[in-house]
């Protein structure tokens, strides 16, 4: 058996919701969802090292994206470490170092990816031996998107988004992801969603019907058909809070994207393109007309949170 490592590095992917259907809220205010998640190769990296002071937990962050991330005990990676410790009873500590690439509070699950990568890295560093399924279950207590960041690939999410069924999606999809600056708070977007629905009878907190047409298009690897099914029921709420998103979505479509949606609760926009070159073309046209906008091309990835180095 190889000796226990002193340093483990794990990555976890950001996500796009290819469809997001929202049902009623439960007693905690959590909404029932039916969503199709897709992981993209825009990754969060968590390095976990055994600390000099045994048992201590510390966090540092190197962010490649704009915005503020808390380094105190509210940080999801630190909460993941605390949860793994309390669940397994391990006395170990760690110094976590996160390299962020996923837009902060952007609707792409960056914080959840931090938690997922931290769980996977620490489970190995501390030799706590939990299975991926157990890590996903633990992760669901930290946030609805954490189990998917552990799993990766493409999956149907039901319940609060944490009940996952892998969805066959043989085609690699290419996305142009544009972060239009600023942040949207997920609870705030759901609150506006509820406000906009006020007056209509409250839907029950049961999982809405998933988008079967989208699941079929994904299974067939038919990119044009997939483009026709991209949909987000949080769109109106996100646009109510950020009216500029509507124009940007129009601009992405006009400049050649196959389709464009708000990613999750926004404000990141996800535009489906044919390939890398097409993505860069759309991005260049957009920038020529609209000026500075943070856009990058990413592709779908089969990987969830995984260890990339251990020593
Ligand atoms: O699970 P997560 O921490 O990502 O959720 C952030 C917030 O988004 C929740 O506190 C809740 O207000 C809202 N939310 C929701 N229904 C869900 C998932 C999240 O209302 N299924």
Automatic annotation (TrEMBL):
<keyword id="KW-0414">Isoprene biosynthesis</keyword>
<dbReference type="GO" id="GO:0016114">
    <property type="term" value="P:terpenoid biosynthetic process"/>
</dbReference>
<dbReference type="InterPro" id="IPR013750">
    <property type="entry name" value="GHMP_kinase_C_dom"/>
</dbReference>
<dbReference type="InterPro" id="IPR036554">
    <property type="entry name" value="GHMP_kinase_C_sf"/>
</dbReference>
<comment type="pathway">
    <text>Isoprenoid biosynthesis; isopentenyl diphosphate biosynthesis via DXP pathway; isopentenyl diphosphate from 1-deoxy-D-xylulose 5-phosphate: step 3/6.</text>
</comment>
<dbReference type="InterPro" id="IPR004424">
    <property type="entry name" value="IspE"/>
</dbReference>
<keyword id="KW-0418">Kinase</keyword>
<keyword id="KW-0808">Transferase</keyword>
<feature type="binding site">
    <location>
        <begin position="103"/>
        <end position="113"/>
    </location>
    <ligand>
        <name>ATP</name>
    </ligand>
</feature>
<comment type="function">
    <text>Catalyzes the phosphorylation of the position 2 hydroxy group of 4-diphosphocytidyl-2C-methyl-D-erythritol.</text>
</comment>
<dbReference type="GO" id="GO:0050515">
    <property type="term" value="F:4-(cytidine 5'-diphospho)-2-C-methyl-D-erythritol kinase activity"/>
</dbReference>
<feature type="active site">
    <location>
        <position position="145"/>
    </location>
</feature>
<feature type="domain" description="GHMP kinase C-terminal">
    <location>
        <begin position="217"/>
        <end position="288"/>
    </location>
</feature>
<dbReference type="Pfam" id="PF08544">
    <property type="entry name" value="GHMP_kinases_C"/>
</dbReference>
<dbReference type="InterPro" id="IPR014721">
    <property type="entry name" value="Ribsml_uS5_D2-typ_fold_subgr"/>
</dbReference>
<dbReference type="GO" id="GO:0005524">
    <property type="term" value="F:ATP binding"/>
</dbReference>
<feature type="domain" description="GHMP kinase N-terminal">
    <location>
        <begin position="75"/>
        <end position="153"/>
    </location>
</feature>
<comment type="similarity">
    <text>Belongs to the GHMP kinase family. IspE subfamily.</text>
</comment>
<dbReference type="InterPro" id="IPR020568">
    <property type="entry name" value="Ribosomal_Su5_D2-typ_SF"/>
</dbReference>
<feature type="active site">
    <location>
        <position position="15"/>
    </location>
</feature>
<dbReference type="InterPro" id="IPR006204">
    <property type="entry name" value="GHMP_kinase_N_dom"/>
</dbReference>
<keyword id="KW-0067">ATP-binding</keyword>
<keyword id="KW-0547">Nucleotide-binding</keyword>
<dbReference type="Pfam" id="PF00288">
    <property type="entry name" value="GHMP_kinases_N"/>
</dbReference>
<protein>
    <recommendedName>
        <fullName>4-diphosphocytidyl-2-C-methyl-D-erythritol kinase</fullName>
        <ecNumber>2.7.1.148</ecNumber>
    </recommendedName>
</protein>
<dbReference type="GO" id="GO:0019288">
    <property type="term" value="P:isopentenyl diphosphate biosynthetic process, methylerythritol 4-phosphate pathway"/>
</dbReference>
